[in-house]
Specification:
Elements (H helix, E strand, L loop, with lengths): L12 E5 L10 H9 L2 E5 L8 H6 L9 E5 L7 H19 L5 E5 L8 H12 L5 E4 L4 H9 L10 E5 L4 H9 L3 E5 L5 H11 L5 E5 L7 E3 L14 E6 L1
Parallel strand pairs: 1-4, 1-5, 2-3, 2-4, 6-7
Antiparallel strand pairs: 7-10, 8-9, 8-10
Amino acid sequence: MEPELAPIGTGTLYGVGVGPGDPELITLKACRLLRECPVIAYPATKKGGKSYAHEIVEMHIKADEKVMLGLVFPMTRDPGQLASGWNRTAELCWNELKQGRDVAFVTEGDPNLYSTFIHLARLMQELHPGVPVVSIPGISSVLGAAAALGQPLADGDQRVGIIPATEDPEALKEALLHHDTVVFLKVAKVLDLLLDVLDELGLAGKASVVTKVTSPNETVWRDARELRGQELEYLSLMVVSK
């Protein structure tokens, strides 16, 4: 698709971090923008279901006074399907922006930390150069987990790592060896592998897991070893503190 220069008067694309789950953990600026923007974009399921971020902002907006733009993001590794799906998503936002309407894309946590907004913003600027793109920081689930566990992430010269949990045991091991505290994100699919690596390093007793942090459905396991062989929610993270 050829880039289309954004005309004068184009709306602004906002990436709005709405926090980790508790609707009160949202900034005043984010609240103001959500109320002012005529279009609220949010990740949606193929069946049109609400996203986690959508649920967080419901108490801050009057949805019947907004254009609620549900965006379905491609969940595939096929390059062709990925490109097509992302282009379609960007164009749905562009259809609003080119008419001068600001679009607030809501994302749990922070829009610049492992967020769908990162790719959406890059693609929008690539396809429609000149579209104003602004991100509004939000409280990350990483910080929410520290509060839920009542433990600091780092102090003084300590090093903290924020690492996506993968199926590569050597990468997991390296992260643990080179940081005083490691927060592993999205651990549900590799929990047992991660526990094996922790056992090997003698750190299994230093790991805690939090699911849907700060939300009404938050669950905390202070000893991650209790979870071996169990299935976890997608929004689960592990904190390993030496």
